[in-house]
Amino acid sequence: MKTRHTLPWHDTPAKSERIVSAITRIASVLRSGAWQFATAEGLNPTQVDILEALRSRREGVRLSWIAQHLGVTAASASDSITSLTAKGLIEKGRDAADGRAVALRLTESGQNLAARVSNSVSFAHEAVSDLPQSTQEALFESLLALIGKLQQSDRFPEIRACVTCKYFAINRHPDSNAPHHCTLVNAPLSVSLLRLDCPEHDQAQAAVVVQNWRELESA
């Protein structure tokens, strides 16, 4: 009786599983690059994440926001912030929206170190830049769609993305290369110009955010 051999690709994992595996591996490589640099600076992974989170938030944020953004306990975030403050990388001030609350900001030294941490993964920027422009655009749109799915299932923290902003008007200019619109600057937006972290972001209502993600997905 002949033995029936299974072809090697018959047990190939589902495409969704392979995509998640690829994203996980890329994230691991990026974190490894940043953490190797940070270790030499006497920082731990959580402290690195805090520096990166505060780098583009010069107005400052509260401790509770940092804990939620990083998915750690308030106690863990507080310990890391205390250490970063002692190193002269973070300073405390008053929250612009509520003078009774404390806002955390990077010092000049903190900004410089955060920039150097970002530069430690410049190899990834170079790799993406080497991809054809069409591949970059398709990759960005796919990742944006995935973020939207995760946000709708409450599995992704709030981000300062165009899609979640009250100034974002989706499909204002249908059948054009720039179908969306930013009412803050009164300018059309193509998908390739959508931001994931805009300093001018103002959070839209939850129902509007969900609707934006759904319309973007079906576009």
Put the structure in a nutshell.
This protein has eight helices and five strands. It is mostly helical. The chain folds into two domains: 15-122, Winged helix-like DNA-binding domain superfamily/Winged helix DNA-binding domain (Arc Repressor Mutant, subunit A, Orthogonal Bundle); 132-218, no CATH class.
What would your notes on this structure say?
This protein is mainly alpha-helical. It has 2 domains: 15-122, Winged helix-like DNA-binding domain superfamily/Winged helix DNA-binding domain (Arc Repressor Mutant, subunit A), CATH 1.10.10; 132-218, no CATH class. Helix content is 51%, strand content 8%. It contains 8 helices and 5 strands; from the N terminus they run H-H-H-H-E-E-H-H-H-E-E-E-H. It has helices at residues 15-40, 45-55, 63-70, 74-86, 108-119, 122-129, 133-152, 206-218; strands spanning 90-94, 102-106, 168-169, 180-182, 187-189. The strands form 2 sheets. Strands 3-4-5 form a 3-stranded antiparallel beta sheet, with no helix packed on it. A two-stranded antiparallel sheet has the order 1-2. A hairpin with a 7-residue loop joins strand 1 and strand 2. Helix 2 (45-55) packs across helix 5 (108-119), helix 3 packs across helix 4 and helix 7 (133-152) packs across helix 8 (206-218). The radius of gyration is 21 Å and the shape is globular. The mean pLDDT is 90.
